[in-house]
């Protein structure tokens, strides 16, 4: 049966239509044009995969062009990092180019526009210019310098270039249409004065072109056929075309701009400014911190280039903005690592296990499969002895129902090893468990083919032999933000949603096969997740980063919290009806505990707003959340919604609702005066 061909996305369809209507295929040319003012993030990866993917599909060259027109923010460090990221993702560029390569040509074209009466030097303050440009509903008005003579404009622009004027004193503007419905066409800036050192041109220039001017003209100089931008540049297309109109030669390829939806991920911020703030405020440890959405951060954490390319291919290329769940990226990663990451054993929260009937000096080297998904991966030897480490959570003295791990009197299998039975424990003075004593079935070795080895037991545990275990630092990474849209709340800084548990560092023990593990190598720590060797690893110290768990813990957590809120609402119904004071008190304690345990900010605020309705129990629920949750406050609820909640609650027939809303209002200093009379 033939495989179904993947349908073309809309940009591929545009290119196909161009070819069908006569555009020579050999003249197709694309570019990826980053500004070197920060490290690339996962959103840029989508653009990289799109542009270079088109180059591969159509066998067309793709330029890597750095739009380096703002020396105040750009550095060689960022240039080098961008090149490394593009190569790591698996792409090669045709030419490495820079907008600064074209500074002289851009300047010459600016002179041409001045001579044509299509550009002028404006000496207003930025505030005056903003006022003069009008609003989206009001046309702009001509500025006082709009009709300077060509000679005066040429003289002033030459002075700007020579460094005769301070920054902010003059700008060069295109003379287009101050009444245009597109505000970008109301005499946009072309050049500003910047007495800054440029990472490539040094101090040769005192004026630098604006992005809107340089971008399209650079595309033209490079003969880019399809200039692909994100949707925020839709309104810029008219200006892009206007600048091209001024210099276009019909014998050359004319670039056309097309826009696609940028990548928006939940639980993430994508603004370079905000990412820089995270670095500068030391919320993270640099641009390549494994919690960052930068490509370098993802690489260090252990994400693979193949998984990122697969992710970008899976989400596709769309015309509309949407938000992608970060769990899809993790799914693509698990799918990739599952095929190629060797399985090893590591214990991150160890407790000592002693097999009392195993000879004290005996060491067995057991066969362990490296990757059951890859037949060619083969086997390795792991040492087994009397004293082992297992995870603390894998043992309970008394096991509840459905506990499929080790407990007193119950059997489990040790991975690749024997079946053991819990016998007793040795405790520390504080009551914590120091040692677990077990016995083993000598005839139950895994894979031996004996009857005992085929016996079914409750579960299988991973372990490491204490005398052969290698100590390792393990960095357990989690999402950097606790909210799915941390920078979408007007009254709150995105920094308020930083996850305090996004990094935990533990000392664990790994099997001896990892003694010489190399930086960047991936492993599956069995039953724990996928881990990568960090660059901080030395000959004397192993450092691992947790890349991703075996399952999506956040999806489970979100579902669990949503279900908990639903069940809490049911408990409120019981609480309201309960006549017995003691039982009612116990129910309220349970309700409050549930509310306090929920971390999801958006879930809490949405639940409050959703329950502002003419229903006493719903009103009580909203008020209880406001009173007891430390994740949200009064200012997090829209003002009209909050006022509606207060008004309806004060008029409620339920004494419980009226009592708690009065408590809430008294704690809400902003609205207290407004509702004092009603109280």
What are the salient characteristics of this protein?
679 residues; alpha/beta; seven-stranded mixed beta sheet; 19 helices
Write the layout of secondary structure elements.
Blueprint: H1 10-20, E1 30-32, H2 42-58, E2 62-66, H3 76-88, E3 96-98, H4 103-115, E4 119-122, H5 126-132, H6 150-162, E5 171-174, E6 189-193, E7 207-209, H7 211-221, E8 226-230, H8 237-247, E9 256-260, E10 264-265, H9 272-280, H10 295-301, H11 305-315, E11 323-324, H12 326-340, E12 343-344, E13 346-347, E14 350-355, E15 364-369, E16 379-384, E17 387-391, E18 395-396, E19 406-407, E20 411-414, E21 419-427, E22 433-440, E23 460-461, E24 464-465, E25 470-477, E26 503-510, E27 522-525, E28 529-533, E29 542-548, H13 553-577, H14 581-597, H15 601-610, H16 616-628, H17 639-650, H18 655-667, H19 672-675
Parallel strand pairs: 1-2, 2-3, 8-9, 10-11, 12-27, 14-22, 18-19, 20-23, 25-29
Antiparallel strand pairs: 4-5, 5-6, 6-7, 13-26, 14-17, 15-16, 17-24, 20-21, 21-22, 25-26, 27-28, 28-29
Helix pairs in contact: 2-11, 7-8, 11-12, 13-14, 13-16, 15-16, 16-18
Describe this structure in words.
By secondary structure, the protein is of the alpha/beta class. The protein contains 19 helices and 29 strands. The strands form 8 sheets. Strands 12-27-28-29-25-26-13 form a 7-stranded mixed β-sheet, with helices on one face. A 7-stranded mixed β-sheet has the order 23-20-21-22-14-17-24, with no helix packed on it. Helix 13 packs antiparallel against helix 14, helix 15 packs antiparallel against helix 16 and helix 16 runs parallel beside helix 18. The longest helix is centred in the C-terminal third of the chain and has 25 residues.
């Amino acid at each position: 049966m033939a495989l179904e061909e993947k349908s073309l996305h809309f940009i591929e369809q545009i290119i196909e239509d161009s070819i069908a209507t006569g555009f020579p295929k050999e003249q197709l040319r694309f570019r990826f044009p980053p500004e070197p003012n920060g490290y690339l993030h996962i959103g840029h990866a989508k653009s990289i995969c799109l542009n270079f993917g088109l180059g591969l599909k159509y066998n067309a060259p793709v330029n890597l062009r750095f739009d380096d027109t703002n020396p105040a923010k750009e550095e060689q460090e960022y240039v080098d990092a961008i090149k490394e990221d593009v190569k790591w993702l698996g792409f090669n560029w045709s030419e490495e180019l820079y907008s600064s390569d074209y500074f002289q040509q851009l300047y010459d074209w600016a002179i041409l526009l001045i001579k044509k009466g299509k550009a002028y030097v404006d000496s207003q303050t930025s505030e005056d210019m903003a006022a003069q440009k009008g609003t989206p509903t009001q046309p702009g008005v001509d500025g006082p310098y709009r009709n300077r003579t060509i000679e005066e404009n040429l003289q002033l622009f030459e002075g700007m270039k020579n460094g005769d004027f301070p920054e902010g004193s003059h700008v060069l503007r295109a003379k287009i249409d101050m009444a245009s419905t597109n505000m970008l066409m109301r005499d946009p800036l072309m050049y500003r004065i910047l007495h800054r050192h440029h990472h490539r041109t040094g101090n040769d220039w005192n004026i630098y072109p604006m992005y809107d001017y340089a971008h399209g003209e650079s595309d033209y100089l490079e003969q880019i056929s399809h200039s692909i931008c994100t949707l925020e540049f839709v309104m810029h297309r008219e200006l892009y075309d206007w600048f091209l109109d001024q210099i276009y030669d019909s014998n050359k390829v004319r670039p056309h701009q097309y826009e696609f939806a940028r990548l928006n991920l939940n639980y993430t911020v994508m603004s370079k400014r905000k990412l820089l703030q995270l670095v500068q405020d030391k919320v993270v440890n640099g641009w390549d911190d494994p919690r960052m959405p930068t490509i370098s951060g993802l690489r260090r954490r252990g994400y693979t280039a193949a998984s990122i390319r697969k992710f970008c291919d899976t989400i596709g290329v769309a015309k509309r903005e949407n938000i992608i769940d970060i769990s899809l990226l993790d799914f693509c990663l698990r799918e990739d690592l599952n095929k190629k990451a060797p399985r090893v054993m590591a214990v991150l929260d160890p407790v000592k296990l002693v097999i009392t009937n195993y000879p004290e000096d005996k060491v067995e080297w057991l066969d362990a499969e490296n990757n059951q998904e890859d037949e060619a991966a083969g086997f390795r030897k792991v040492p087994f002895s009397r004293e082992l480490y297992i995870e603390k959570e894998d043992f309970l003295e008394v096991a509840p129902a459905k506990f499929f791990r080790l407990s007193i009197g119950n059997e489990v299998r040790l991975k690749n090893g024997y079946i053991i039975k819990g016998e007793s424990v040795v405790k520390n003075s504080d009551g914590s468990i120091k040692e677990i004593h077990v016995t083993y079935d000598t005839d139950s070795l895994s894979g031996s083919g004996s009857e005992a080895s085929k016996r079914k037991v409750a579960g299988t545990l991973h372990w490491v032999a204490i005398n052969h275990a290698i100590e390792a630092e393990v960095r357990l990474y989690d999402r950097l933000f606790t909210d799915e849209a941390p920078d979408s709340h007007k009254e709150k800084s995105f920094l308020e949603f930083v996850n305090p548990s996004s990094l935990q560092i533990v000392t664990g023990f790994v099997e001896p096969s990892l003694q010489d593990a190399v930086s960047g190598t991936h492993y599956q720590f069995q039953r724990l997740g996928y881990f990568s060797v960090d660059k901080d690893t030395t000959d004397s110290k192993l450092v691992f980063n947790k890349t991703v768990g075996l399952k999506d813990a956040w999806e489970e957590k979100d579902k669990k919290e949503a279900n908990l809120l639903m069940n809490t609402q049911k408990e409120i119904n019981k609480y309201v009806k309960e006549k017995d004071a003691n039982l009612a008190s116990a129910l309220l304690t349970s309700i409050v505990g549930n509310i306090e345990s929920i971390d999801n900010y958006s879930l809490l605020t949405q639940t409050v707003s959703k329950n502002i309705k003419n229903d006493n129990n719903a009103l009580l629920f909203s008020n209880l959340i406001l009173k007891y949750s430390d994740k949200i406050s009064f200012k997090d609820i829209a003002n009209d919604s909050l006022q509606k909640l207060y008004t309806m609650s004060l008029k409620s027939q339920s004494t419980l609702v009226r009592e708690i809303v009065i408590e809430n209002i008294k704690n809400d200093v902003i609205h207290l005066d407004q509702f004092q009379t009603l109280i």
